[in-house]
């Protein structure tokens, strides 16, 4: 009988040790979810410093002349062509800022070389001014989306549709990467 009691005591101790409720563990800090950058993000991060280095003065000049934030000009330049002066879209848009020949006529800059990046920067920046003035797109986001989608379409977009455009998201992503104080 003593043996049975001894075995039961040992079994109870073992059961308690192996099957006791685990103690509360301290809360671990939440880890930030990391993701690999997209191909576009990698290309943007490579192109941005080159564009700023090569075209800073042209961007500042166009910004002053047409009263446009230089960060917006650089962002459009990156999103439209990654700074490629010879970029040509399937719709016929040309140069760094990807203006169409019809846009060049509208802004009275036809005949100027679209494949010359400083000229293209002037054309694109002037077009942004036309979008704000002639089409009454005073909201900067509206004007930026109109640069891509056209002013007629944008006038029919809701504010939510404008804010959810991938074009605008890319522009804003580039603008966040421009070092503060880059432009005067």
Automatic annotation (TrEMBL):
Signal peptide: none
Domain Transglycosylase SLT, chain residue ranges per copy: 60-160
SUPFAM superfamilies for the chain: Lysozyme-like
Entries under InterPro entries matching the protein: Lysozyme-like_dom_sf, Transglycosylase_SLT_dom_1
Descriptive protein name: Transglycosylase SLT domain-containing protein
Organism name: Candidatus Yonathbacteria bacterium RIFCSPHIGHO2_02_FULL_44_14
Biological classification of the source: Bacteria, Candidatus Yonathiibacteriota
């Amino acid at each position: 009988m003593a043996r049975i009691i001894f075995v039961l005591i040992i079994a109870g101790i073992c059961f308690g040790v192996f099957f006791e409720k685990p103690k509360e563990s301290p809360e671990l800090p939440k880890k930030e979810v990391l993701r690999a950058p997209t191909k576009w993000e990698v290309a943007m991060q490579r192109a941005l410093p080159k564009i700023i280095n090569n075209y800073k003065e042209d961007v500042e000049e166009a910004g002053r002349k047409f009263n446009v934030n230089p960060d917006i000009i650089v962002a459009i330049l990156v999103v439209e062509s990654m700074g490629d002066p010879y970029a040509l879209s399937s719709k016929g848009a040309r140069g760094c800022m990807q203006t169409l020949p019809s846009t060049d006529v509208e802004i009275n800059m036809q005949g100027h070389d679209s494949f010359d990046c400083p000229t293209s920067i002037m054309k694109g920046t002037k077009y942004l001014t036309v979008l704000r003035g002639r089409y009454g797109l005073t909201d900067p986001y509206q004007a930026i989306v109109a640069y891509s989608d056209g002013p007629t379409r944008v006038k029919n977009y809701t504010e939510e549709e404008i804010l959810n455009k991938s074009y605008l998201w890319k522009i804003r992503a580039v603008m966040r990467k421009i070092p503060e104080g880059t432009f005067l």
